[in-house]
Specification:
This protein is an all-alpha fold. The chain has helices at 21-34, 78-94. The model has no long low-confidence stretch (mean pLDDT 88).
Length: 95
């Protein structure tokens, strides 16, 4: 078989420090809207944020609670989506 194979890396690991502006503002917005004090964690798994880290952009991940992610019939509640909208709106207003 005559073939050629070229491997490229499209995503890279990233680190956003706990004291970055985006982490602080998001934590504040989550607390303001939900009353929940955030727990900074990487337990959420792989994400699209890894594609932006290579550009030196501070990234955070935050979304709906989704115990069915990537499963058949993946779903979340309307309340989760509405709360997510409120948190994102708050961070945009206050950033």
């Amino acid at each position: 078989m005559d073939y050629s194979l070229k491997l490229t890396q499209g995503s890279y690991p990233f680190v956003t420090t706990r004291d970055s502006k985006v982490v602080k503002k998001l934590s504040e917005s989550i607390a303001n809207i939900t009353g929940v004090q955030t727990k900074l964690s990487t337990a959420g798994g792989t994400s699209d944020a890894r594609f932006m880290g290579a550009f030196g952009i501070d990234v955070v991940e935050f979304g709906v609670i989704n115990d069915t992610i990537h499963a058949p019939n993946e779903r979340t509640s309307i309340v989760e989506v509405e709360t997510l909208y409120e948190v994102f709106s708050d961070i945009v207003r206050t950033f």
